[in-house]
Structure formats: structure tokens, C-alpha cells
Amino acid sequence: MNRSPNPDLLALSHPLALLSVFVLLINDHVLKVYVPSALTGKISDFAGLFFFPLLLGAILNLTANPLQIKPHRMAIGSFGFTAVWFSLIKTLPFFSALTGKFLSSLLFVPVQIVTDPGDLLALVMLIPAWKLRSRVEQGNKKGNKRLSYLALGLASIAVMATSPMVIFTVKNLIVADDLLFTPAENSSGDYYYSADGGRTWEWFKFDAPASVAAQSGEYPELPVTVCLPDNPEVCYQTGAEAILESNDGGQTWHESWNIPAGRRQFLERSSPYLDIGPYDLIAFDHKGKQEIIAALGTGGVLVKTGAGPWENFEAAGAGPLHFESKDFGDAVGMMFGEIFTLSVIALVLLFILVVGNVTDRDSKFYSLLKKSCIALILLFIPAYSLLYTGQSLFFVFLFLFTAAATVILLLFQIGFNTTRKGQVGILILLFDWLASGFAFALWANGTIPMYGVSFIMAVVFNILTVIWIFRRQFADAPPAP
Questions:
Q1: Is residue 480 assigned to a domain?
Q2: What 3-state DSSP class applies to 360?
Q3: What pLDDT, on the 0 to 100 scale, is given for residue 39?
């Protein structure tokens, strides 16, 4: 039986594969824009999982041909990688945030991957995709080679041209018929409304009142100043990411609401697009109580009742603002750069420990260790620079892969081929890595408000570890002649 040298490529030209590509393109760039719903998200998952492993296998077969890996084994890897990575991004916030960051840096637009374990149902599409590929490989289904390359390009575009995340903002507040209205962003003539003083918002399914339509799109000139109708001495005014308050009719002002100290940097990391204004202020009578409501851009709305505190609510898909991480996974994903740097420092110090305490330099593992460290050093500079310039995360992933291999070799050396002093060193390094990472995690969850404090703590931990290692490393070194 004649087997195709690249069955994945030929499978892409099959009508079912082409249909899934077109469905993804239409869904992401038409349906999600004009008729967004939970269904459009499911369609993307089902369509993408049908052709993506075929696309990945075709690319690997074309690029890794010199390695002479059998297409069947390559396909197992492609389908396995697709299943594992899709499961990770749909269940663990760290991987969804990491993938979103990768796509954002690659496409130069903010992309958000939604964590939803319910989407794992789409993995069933891998079964018909595998059956289609198997039939093509066995020669039961023939494909057009020229059409296959065209399908390869089209499928690549479909994967890379992921629809950007829709940015929701609240910039205009309108009062009509005892209801609050705000125009829906990225649409024409649609509105959200609130019947409880801005605390909850729903899509307005009917034609908006004429007064609302007339004011839609007319953003107030900043700064906006509003005084309480029943107490004109109390006034509020929009500021630069703050709301000012005056108790003397506008003669003097003080900040009534602002971003907590040290937390703007957190907002910049947690939000791919941050624009909080404030853009509008209105006084609103809700159940006999005077309320001040502020349009906070991407932060939703702020509501203040009487002398009470400001409360932040979601509105029209925007907000609310979060000044700390939601959970541990969210904190780890946000501090990826710091964890990456701490891991590099730990690897360098670990290498110094092993080199200084190895007992058998002629072993095969020691030779592999040196080669891995050379690869690690060569990849570190581009990986580090690309990570912080946001151009691409390819070298970062490659670096982490090499780092993982190096760690395995280092641990082998420490466990079986080093002095006891070197074995104790791994415990010190592990404590340093955990303590430094924990300091940054405390900043992410809001326990430490200022990033600089966490940074100083991590620096102190690492300096103490370096001093300890070098003092122990060279304590028994003979004096220079």
C-alpha cells in the first residue's frame, strides 16, 4: 500500500477540512463582530480543533523532513500537543494568559483566551480529524497537491488571523425615564440600561428613547463637574484617573477616588487595554437617595451613594477594576517575566555549584551538562530581550525547554556526582527561588501594595544566596601562590 509522504498536507485539501477553515474565518471575523454570543465561541473551538492538528502536522513534516521522522509519529505528536495545550488553556488561567500574551505579541493586537472547562467538549473533533488523516495516509482518500499548499496557506491565515479581543468602554451616561443608559461600544444604535442605579446593566432590546438617541455619541467636555441638586456645596469633578470632591461649592478640591498607591502597574499588567478616564459624571436620584455615577471607561462605572464609599460595577461589558490577582494561577501568569528571570539566576548559581563540587568530570552526563548550559547561554539574551520588547515569545519557549533539560542534568549531577556541600546548595537555591517568587506573588495579590518593595525583597534574597554560595564555594580553596 502506497502511503502519502505528507498525509496531513493532503488532508487539508479535503472538503471537510476546507469547510472548517472557512467556518472559523466567517465565525471569527463576521459572526463574533455582528452577532456575538456564547455560540460563536463554541463554533471557533469545534472548527479550529478539526483542522489545527492537520495544519501542525503538515508544517512539521515540511520543516522537520531532514530528521526523517515518520509522518505517523509526527501526527501523534501534533494531535497530542493540540489536545494537551487546548486542555491547559481552557482549565488553567496561567496557560490561557500565557497563550493570550503570545498571540498578542505575534498579532500586535490584544487577544484574550477565555478559560472555560466546558469548552473541552470540542476535543471530540480530534476523532474525525484523525480518521480523515488516516484514510488519506492509507491512500483511501486522495488530495490535490496544489490545492493542499493553497489550503495550508489559508489554514495558517485562519489560525493567525484570530479576531482581536473586543474592548468595552463606558464613556457616556444618559438619564431617561428613571433609567440609566450607555451606548454599546462597537455597535450602532444599541444600548445598555440600568434600573438599579448603575449596579447591574442589561442589553436594551427595544428602540432607545428619542432623548437617549439624541445624546448618544456626544461625549461631555472634560473635566465634568456635577453638584448635588439638594446640596450645591457638594460637588464632584473628573480628574486624571481620579474623581475630585469639593465641600465648598468648588472653591477647594480633594481626591475622592483614585487608583490605590502602587496598583496602576498591576492594572497595566492585568488589562491588555487600560483607559479609565473618568469620562462622565451624573447625579441620579435612586429610591430617594442621591447618587453620583461615573463613567470609568474600561473600568465600568463607579457609584457613590450619599456619604458612602465609591463602588465599582461592571457595565456594558467593561470593568470592574481588580487591584489584585484573582487566584494563585492568575498571579503566576502575571509575574511570568519575574519568574523567568529568577529561574535564570537560579540556573546560573546551580551551574556554579555543580562545576565547583562535581567529583567526576569525565562522565557522559557532565559533558551533556556543559552542552546544555552553552545552549542556555546562547538562547538567554534573545529570549530575555524579546520577552520584554513583546515582539515574540518563540525564544522564551525554546529557552524554557532547554532550561528544563539543564535542570534535569543538574539535579542528576547533584544527586549522584557531587560533594555533600553541593547537595546542600540545591536546598538553599530552592529556598531562594521560592522566597523571591513568593515576594512577587504577594505584590500580585495586593498584600504588598508597591512593586518596588517586592523587587527589593527578591534582590536581597538573591544577594544573600550569592554570598553564601561563593563563601562556601571558595572557603576551602587553597591560597594563591
A1: no
A2: coil
A3: 78
